[in-house]
Amino acid sequence: MTPDQPAAPRSRSARPGTGRPAPRSGGAPRLREAVRAKGRAASPARPRGTAGASRPRRRPSRGNALDALRGLQQRLRRAWDRPLTAYYLLLGGSLLILVLGLVMVYSASQIKALQSGLSPSYFFRKQLFAAALGGSLMLLAVRMPIKLHRAFAYPLLAVSVFLMCLVQVPGMGIAVNGNQNWISFGGPFLLQPSEFGKLALVLWGADLLARKQDKRLLAQWKHLLVPLVPATGMLLGLIMLGGDMGTAIILTAILFGLLWLAGAPTRLFVGVLAFAGAIGMLLIKTSANRMSRLACIGATEPGAHDQCWQAVHGIYALANGGWFGSGLGASMEKWGELPEPHTDFIFAITGEELGLAGTLSVLVLFAALGYAGIRVAGRTEDPFVRYAAGGVTTWITAQAVVNIGAVLGLLPIAGVPLPLFSYGGSALLPTMFAVGLLIAFARAEPGARAALAMRQPALRKKLARVRRKTMRRPVKRRPSGER
């Protein structure tokens, strides 16, 4: 090129040092814009102002919540329908009630023991001894076969009737709180035979009804009532000779429970109930003490001559407890204000020291025992097991309702202890044997028996592994340099 010629335009000229032509000035921005548009088309559009923010979570719809509730209900139903549910409820519930009862007996009886010139742990030690003896009876009841339980019913009934007759013999029977239903064995050891009469009535009545059902005689009302009702009437007469109206109510409840399980016709059942109610009202009206107790239902003041003192101070104790109580051992009513704080009104002391949470826990445990007993009675095909389980469940449930109802002021004070909870060895021993009876029936179910048989080898392996680990001798390490 000569100097006279003009220079050519460099729009497409080569880059310095390379032989390639330079790209046009607008090519790169257009390429980047095309890539961005393609990315926006592939990804979902976001609202303005939310760049880089996480997507909002979708709220579960109403249908999903209902499905979750249905799934939870099905899981709970499967858990309740497991073969060992009744077994664990009976074993765990009874032990929890017993342990909590021991704690509350120790707390509620200290002041009573000191006022009597005794050691603060006097009543607790006696209750602990009775609980240990009752545990042996419970284990015996669990291990006994059903045939032996049926054979044991008749001797137990005969012994109970004999001891209840001895109560009325002068010099042998002792009156406690106006009721002569105790036998003294010397020293502080007393026995109340009517408590063993409850267990005898359950076992004997269950065996009697089971035999008649096998012979198909329960369809006739004569065989349904005789000799069950006359024998129960004899026990009630012996109890009422001593003036113990509360125990008579529990025996009557056991009788009605057995008749209900036996399929008594409604008119026959109502007739027996009306007759028993008429007799009960007659006994109440002929006793000034029972009439005063009936008049204290729902009382908020002690009344004339302090006839409602115990009922009113039981309500005071529950009111002082509040939601979570004043603390274990911090009750004020047990300092001489509330009579029988460790026996009939131990539930009131529990409400004062442990509050509403403690009393509701006790109610839930008794409800679990009642449910487990009904389940055992409803799932068995053995008539004796059904009648015995139903009788024991009626016994424990009715006695708990009567005791707690009296403390709450909803029922008259009947003088019956709270099962497995109140102080008293005579009531604790037969009750623990009866709970052992229910546990034996729960273990005897086909599904429960198979589940326990499957778990025994695994448990044995774990115990053997633990035993091998604990029996190994520790190796003594030699110091360094020693051979």
Automatic annotation (TrEMBL):
Biased composition (Low complexity): 44-54
Membrane spanning stretches: 85-108, 128-144, 151-169, 245-261, 268-284, 354-374, 395-414, 420-442
Any one Gene Ontology cellular component term annotated for this protein: plasma membrane
Location of region: Disordered: 1-65, 463-483
Topology versus the membrane: Multi-pass membrane protein
Pfam families recorded: FTSW_RODA_SPOVE
Catalytic activity, as annotated: [GlcNAc-(1->4)-Mur2Ac(oyl-L-Ala-gamma-D-Glu-L-Lys-D-Ala-D-Ala)](n)-di-trans,octa-cis-undecaprenyl diphosphate + beta-D-GlcNAc-(1->4)-Mur2Ac(oyl-L-Ala-gamma-D-Glu-L-Lys-D-Ala-D-Ala)-di-trans,octa-cis-undecaprenyl diphosphate = [GlcNAc-(1->4)-Mur2Ac(oyl-L-Ala-gamma-D-Glu-L-Lys-D-Ala-D-Ala)](n+1)-di-trans,octa-cis-undecaprenyl diphosphate + di-trans,octa-cis-undecaprenyl diphosphate + H(+)
Molecular function via GO: lipid-linked peptidoglycan transporter activity; peptidoglycan glycosyltransferase activity
Keywords from the UniProt entry: Cell cycle, Cell division, Cell membrane, Cell shape, Cell wall biogenesis/degradation, Glycosyltransferase, Membrane, Peptidoglycan synthesis, Transferase, Transmembrane, Transmembrane helix
Coiled coil regions in record: none
A biological process from GO: regulation of cell shape
EC id: 2.4.99.28
Keyword set includes Cell division: yes
Subcellular localization: Cell membrane
Pathway linked to the protein: Cell wall biogenesis; peptidoglycan biosynthesis
Role: Peptidoglycan polymerase that is essential for cell division.
UniProt record similarity statement: Belongs to the SEDS family. FtsW subfamily.
PANTHER family: CELL CYCLE PROTEIN, PEPTIDOGLYCAN GLYCOSYLTRANSFERASE FTSW-RELATED
The protein's name in its UniProt record: Probable peptidoglycan glycosyltransferase FtsW
